[in-house]
Amino acid sequence: MQILSIPNFVMFLLLSLLPIALAVDSQSLDGKYSCVGTFIFGRHNDRVAKPANYLTTLGAVEQVESGTFYRERYFGLDEDGNSVNSDFVINGLDPQGYFVYGDTYAQCPASTVIEYSQMSFLQGLYPPSTAVNTNETLADTQDSELSNGTSVEAPLGGYQYVFMDVQSETSDDYFWIKGDENCPSSDAAIDAWYDTEAFKALNSSTFDFYQSLADLLPSTKFPKSKLNFGNAMNINDFVFVESIHDEDWATKWNSSLRYQIATLADAAQWGISYDASNKLNNFTIGGQSLLGASLTYLNATKEKGSPYINYFTGSFNTMYQIFGLLELNQISDNFTGMPGYGATLVWDLLKDTSDNYFVQFSFKNGTDDDDELVAYPLFGLNSTVLSWDDFVAKTEAVSITNLEDWCGKCSSTSSQCTRYSSTYEQASEAEDKGIDLEKVADGSYHLNKLTNAGAGGIGAGVTIGVFLILGALVFAWKKLRSKKAPLLPVAKTVSRETKAENSSASNAST
Question: Could you state, in order of their start, the residue ranges of all structural domains in the chain?
Fold first, then answer.
């Protein structure tokens, strides 16, 4: 072992601490910059143990508090409408904190815990307001004044109905927020990890520890056959949730035991979230997709001026993947662990006095007052502020920026990927040539003035079989062809370029 001299040791220590020193308080902003937009990705908040289908009251309250925090940051207003100091106030937002369609874009998957988390956050960002009664322009648009001279007060104390874009599994934009679902490539990569020597070694070395938990966990949920490292995430989830909500269970586990269970769960999750030899391993496809969203939606804000606030709500597994893709694990081992409920990743779009654009990344690990929003350098760089061009180049290298690329990388057979299949292209070409695929599908089409039976007589049986497949696809093709343009077109073309829970966990990584 090399023994470092005192001067060398001091230098080594300083160098090892350099990345941490580069992290800065994200509540203040250099005077040459102004904030013109933001992209926020937030984890859901407190819920019951899996399988979970609702947000707890605690979770809802904490999400509202998180929304209030960002209201103060970007509106310069508290929940009561009083002005607060903030270097990040976005001038394009309504000065009274009233929701204006198009100012904020919120997206989440159709998953109850995540949907309710997003809704609660938005209640904090846009709390009940009477601004419509005090702002003449808004009052006119809301028709609060009636012809008889009376004025109608808003229901629910001025509750604001904030638009949420909830994505189903079959929607084109679902991959942005849940890129590791319906993704065979991601599934295969994660499955392969369970066959690695690293996993087998951890599973073996921790076996006795997990077996010792038999008397401390419900046997109906965790029989001895499931007490192993392969179920580390599920075991930790139960212990973590019940430590918050069930006094009887909580008394069974001391802090040391909970820490050990949580640390092993972190190792299990990190194992399927980061590969030091290949940062773009297929089990990071969910993270790659979300990073593509950060670039795509910030670019829309840059080019179109709005939405000013983009807020996506998702799961912890995506955050693990993002930490590795952004090389934040090189800054601190804390980025290899479970992010707190309601944790938020923030990409602020900045502009200097010369109209040059920059991006600053920050992270807030939870919703408590002592969970500070801190800016960190990305991609191993030395500054927390990246020029727009550097941000684009670095993010493109580790992201998926369109549906076609996602379909190809995932080898997905999801319905939204149909248009990119060779069969779909053949169907499109056939219809362009005047072939009625619907008639082919029901057997009434005449090929070269012959019946299908006659065509079969000249060896076209295989051809008809293909057309039957094409006919089945034509409905999806016509539906896709008639779709409207996306809500947020990207003015600048960006280049193309896991399930993050263990295989025994729920598909919803919440």
Answer: 15-126+162-181+281-396, 421-481
